[in-house]
Design a protein that fits this description.
There is one protein chain. This protein is of the alpha/beta class and about 250 residues long. It is about 40% helix and about 15% strand. It has a single domain, classed as Rossmann fold, CATH 3.40.50.300. The protein is built from 10 helices and 7 strands. α1 (about 15-30) packs across α10 (about 240-254). It is globular, with a radius of gyration of 17 Å. The structure holds adenosine-5'-triphosphate (ATP) and magnesium ion. The site of magnesium ion (MG) has 5 residues, from α1.
Length: about 250
């Protein structure tokens, strides 16, 4: 069964896209067939993978808003060992255009369904919002993985995040599971980060898995600029690669 995992958190800049890209790459290293889906109009994942969003004629948007039932999701094959369904800024229109679409909540699930047999993992990189694009991602997913920044306000948004997931589980996707929370941007020598990580563990570990935190490291930000997963960049960071490996193994077991 294909695992469809949404990287979801309405907070911005918490490493959703970074996680989608690098987790995807480490799953592909483990011989899994991986599709990355960019469902964020900012198109960061598309950029992080080395494509120029404004050059793309067809993106996930074309399939989402098409009146034809069989408009395929445009896929770029074998981009750093993964397939990519890219996005660009046009996707911002989908929010409006889907308002009146019939069964709009199921639109992404519907367009991804013919692809399920081709992949072991589909990772959906959500935008930083609780809007329709995140909602259709959660409806299309079997699991949700939540990157959460180790900063003091991190836990503030958790309530509305968990409520959103619960609402989707109740009304639209009963089988949606939380794969876990992935603390990110962690500086081990910063006492505030340490305290935040402790609070995250204290409050959330009774209900969800909390993975090993991803340290803050220049190499991660640099990789985004290179347009490649960290493992393919000159300045690798073995400790961080190990964490992505660990989380890839965990995703095999969910
Ligand atoms: N561990 C890290 N250390 C240093 N920089 C990082 C780390 N993880 C991510 N970054 C950088 O932080 C920025 C935000 O990361 P990313 O784009 O993955 O977050 P996001 O949650 O997808 O953001 P958005 O909400 O805008 O979609 C990027 O420039 C990224 O390269
Ligand atoms: Mg992002």
């Amino acid at each position: 069964m294909t695992k469809v995992i949404s990287l979801f958190n309405q907070a911005g800049g918490v490493a959703k896209t970074t996680t989608a890209q690098n987790l995807g790459y480490h799953l592909s290293l483990r011989q899994h067939r991986v599709l990355l889906v960019d469902i964020d109009p900012q198109a960061s994942l598309t950029t992080f993978m080395g494509l120029e969003p404004s050059d793309l004629e067809k993106t996930i948007y074309s399939a989402l808003v098409s009146e034809e039932d069989d408009e395929p999701v445009p896929i770029h094959q074998d981009v750093h060992g993964m397939d990519l369904a890219p996005a660009n800024i046009l996707l911002a229109n989908a929010e409006q255009e889907l308002i009146f679409a019939e069964l709009r909540e199921f639109r992404l699930k519907e367009v991804l369904s013919p692809l399920l047999d081709n992949y072991d993992f589909i990772l959906i990189d959500c935008p930083p919002s609780l809007g329709i694009l995140s909602q259709i991602s959660l409806v299309a997913s079997t699991h949700v993985l939540v990157p959460i920044q180790c900063q003091f306000k991190a836990l503030k948004g958790t309530d509305s995040l968990l409520k959103t997931v619960a609402r989707v589980q109740r009304k639209l996707n009963r089988s949606l599971k939380i794969a876990g929370f992935f603390p990110t941007m962690y500086s081990a020598n910063n006492s505030l980060d340490q305290r935040t990580l402790e609070s995250i563990r204290e409050q959330l570990s009774p209900i969800v898995t909390i993975f090993t935190p991803l340290p803050r490291a220049t190499a991660v930000a640099e990789a985004a600029e290179y347009g490649k997963p960290l493992a393919l960049c000159p300045n690798k960071n073995p400790a961080i690669l190990h964490i992505f490996d660990e989380i890839a193994i965990a995703m095999e077991e969910i």
